[in-house]
Amino acid sequence: MKKLPISIQDFDRLITGNHVYVDKSRYIYKMVTEGMFYFLSRPRRFGKSLLVSTLEHLFRGNKKLFKGLWIEKADWAWKPHPVLKIDFNGVSFGTPEILRQSLLETLRLKARKAGAASGSSLLRNCFKEMIIKLFEKHRQQVVVLIDEYDQPLISHLGKGEAALETAKQNREVLRELYGVLKESDVNQALQFVFITGISKFAQVSIFSELNNLDDISMQDPYSTLLGYTEEELEKYFAVHLKQLSKQLKRPQAEVLQQIQAWYNGYRFSDADVKVYNPVSVLKLLKQNKFKSYWFETATPAFLVDLIKEQQYPVPLIETLELSQEDFTVYDLDYLQLEPLLFQTGYITIKDYEGELYRLSYPNQEVKTSWLKYLYDQLVAIRDSSLKTQFKKLQIYLRQEQLERFIETTNAILAAIPYQHIENQDEHFYHTVFYLMLSASGALAPTEVLTSRGRIDMEVHFPEKIYIVELKCNQSAEQAIAQIKAKKYFEKHLHSGRKIILLGINFSTSERHITDWQVEQVAGRSRL
Questions:
Q1: What is the extent of the structural domain holding 412?
Q2: Same-domain check for residues 36 and 183
Q3: Cα-flanking dihedrals φ and ψ of residue 469, to 5°?
Q4: DSSP code of 2?
Q5: In this structure, are 55 and 166 located in the same domain?
């Protein structure tokens, strides 16, 4: 059984170490034979660095590493090219001066090792000289690979105005560096350029001089370049999946269904093709336990700061609608939460119709972990033992212990300091309730669209569905009446599951639930 390539980003080490490699060489071949300048954005831990390493070995002509892969049988010349790889994970960028000096030292070191030393003390000239000297020395055009290009920018987000100003100044250093690639004498010395990172900044802000850069981030042919498709999961990890099924003592079909719910769902283009989060799949197969592996690898603090700053309605995140233009308007001077959430992997494309994209959480791992994190950050409760009581909410609903469900919700609301809850409106109570319930692990889609309107929330269990309507300073009776009048339950009548209507009223003066009502709808068996 081949080993799982957890945290292995070097293609040579992966192949020679007998690790599983999901063959993406067909897409790589298309890219390297059809164009020259490429840009790709993908969420963290999605395989970008491994892709850069694969390209490096491909252009160095290391054919033996590609034995058995699709590209081995393609008409690739396997001609060695000089490769210049810059990984911003190894570059210091605390200030623009440090960034400039660190880049200069990085390039000089690489140039000396490659026998193409530059005597220039200017970053732009050093970069230019190195490319031209590599070209002249090897008499082959140069390949430039840039990994995590945006680290000097996104690492300063969410840390105050001074840090944002540092990011803006770092942006100018990067603009200067990348501008070298468009100069005519440099361009003639280039074979291929590939730039990747998490974020997709507006082209005019970073790559203004590199206007021939082909952004493949949302192009259909490259939508599965990174991540695992359903077919790839079952093909390359067949033995590991059997082992997982054995360890969990459950049928493999059932295990696959759970893997899909937890880790699948990422969609990066108009094409309705989804991929699994690779790091989560690998760690699941290693540890034989369903956990939030990807979310644990980093904390999205700057996204939370934006939510606070913009007073963003959190429940709406899973029902976003964006146009194509919304994905490209991303610059430090005007940060927009929605494209940032998409590029960082917290939401993904769920549907595409005409010019409109509908977005939501890709899977249960991301939704539960993200909303739990938001709950911890946005709900100001100092008593940690009380704050964690939210974990019981989905248990109470599953067991239909509604009195305990309401009591626990009210206990949490009562623990929020007065200054944080006074004068709050319906939006605040809806958000806190939504965060508590979703963070508990309940499958709770919000603002569910029906032909007659939008339901505030549904809560799904295998054997039952709750239809929830929230009111503020009204009555639970009015909430139930609205559900009935608009027949929010109608689409579930043939589901074979019990349908429970739950109306809840919050009082802003008393700062808790003052009225709730529950009814059961007589459903019909699934045909």
A1: 381-527
A2: yes
A3: -125, 130
A4: P
A5: yes
Instruction: Give residue 262's identity as a one-letter amino acid code.
Output: W
Higher pLDDT, 208 or 131: 131
Could you say which of 378, 397, 416 is where a domain stops? Answer: 378
**375 contact partners, CB below 8 Å, separation of at least 6:** 390, 435, 436, 439
Question: Is residue 449 pLDDT above 50, yes or no?
Answer: no
* Sequence-separated (6 or more) residues with CB below 8 Å from residue 103: 86, 91, 123, 173, 177
Do 46 and 165 belong to one domain?
A: yes
Q: Domain tally for the chain?
A: 3
Q: For residues 324 and 419, state if they share a domain.
A: no
Lowest-confidence pick of 152-156, 441-445, 496-500: 441-445
Average pLDDT on 226-250 reads 97
Name residues whose C-beta falls within 8 Å of residue 165's C-beta, 6 or more positions apart in sequence: none
Mean pLDDT, rounded, of the chain? 90
210 and 243 assigned to the same domain: no
Looking at residue 4, the DSSP 8-state letter turns out to be P
In angstroms, the CA 104 to CA 125 distance is: 10
CA dist 87 to 103, 212, 363, Å?
A: 10, 22, 30
Q: Is 119 left (phi over 0), alpha (psi -120 to 50) or beta?
A: alpha
Sequence length of the chain is 527
Residues 240, 217 within the same domain: no
In a domain, 356, yes or no: yes
For residues 392-417, average pLDDT: 93
For residue 69, what are its two tokens? 């892969």
The token duo for 270 is 């108009």
CB-based contact 266:227 (threshold 8 Å): yes
d(CA 358, CA 350): 6
Q: Quote the pTM value.
A: 0.89
Mapped onto helix, strand or coil, the DSSP state of residue 445 is coil
Which residue type sits at 66?
F
Query: What is the separation, in whole angstroms, between the first and last Cα of the chain?
Result: 44
